[in-house]
Amino acid sequence: MVQLFPPRHVYFPSTPSHSCTVILLHDIHSTGPELAARLAMSQIQSTEASIFEHFPSCRWVFPSAQPRQTDTCQTIPGSWFESPSPGGRLGPAAMDGLRESVAYTLRIVDEEINRLAGRSRRVVLGGLGQGMAVAVGALLCARGRVGGFIGLNGWFPLLEEMGRYEGADDEEIRQAFVDHLGLELLTGTSGIPGPAATKAPSYELPDSTCKTPILLSYLEADARVGLRTPTLVHDMLVRLGYARMVCRLFPGSRPGERWLKDPEQLDAVAGFLAEVLGH
Description:
Strand content: 5-15%
CATH topology: Rossmann fold
Order of helices and strands: EEHHEEEHEHEHHEHEH
Domain Phospholipase/carboxylesterase/thioesterase: 17-161
CATH superfamily: Alpha/Beta hydrolase fold, catalytic domain
Number of helices: 8
CATH class: Alpha Beta
Strand order of the largest sheet: 1-3-2-6-7-8-9
Largest sheet: 7 strands, mixed
Radius of gyration: 17 Å
EC number: 3.1.2.22
InterPro entries: AB_hydrolase_fold, LYPA1-2/EST-like, PLipase/COase/thioEstase
Family: Belongs to the AB hydrolase superfamily. AB hydrolase 2 family.
Keywords: Fatty acid metabolism, Hydrolase, Lipid metabolism, Serine esterase
């Protein structure tokens, strides 16, 4: 059964032209609108403007995970998949959630590429915390290269399972990831299941997805993620052939999406976007 996701929150360009799109997935127990609101309140140090104002021709897309009903009939923001701990082994229900969330994210990527007339390198994908894990899955399963990837305070999904492929080349590991996730059964005209499937876009010039520029950013003392996580994520992406990668660590331990109050980490994101989008 395909999971139904809430409507996406979209921050539209403030200029008549739409030149690029950034897709950001929120952390656990949050929503797309909450993440967008935090970004709107943040300021880039050099301009004292929000990141939306800094990129006026950019369309920002903030998907939301499924909300969850508690035993007391309260509705709380949901999770992209059931996760006992960052990087932990996933059970069958968690694998189903991860699979559906990755497929949903891929559909959004396709839609935004189509919206930009096939200019896939004008689309940047990213996520925070658990949202980063889903975004990494979408990056590995995508049909072609996008303009950039931003991973913030998150982890690599199925890392333990992929660690078994010692000595395998990057394409073998990537195929093992796709197979383990079970997405080989979901490929087709759109590559995504469900009634909202969209026409598969034509990516700009056939190119390996591992040429996608990547920014990884972490807070050093974030106890939820762990000290070794940045190294583990970096090393696995290197094994997969990603060479255009920057991994930055910042002092602090703000959990969840409160990193947006850290001007240095936000400035790093803005600088990366300016580089890959040519702003």
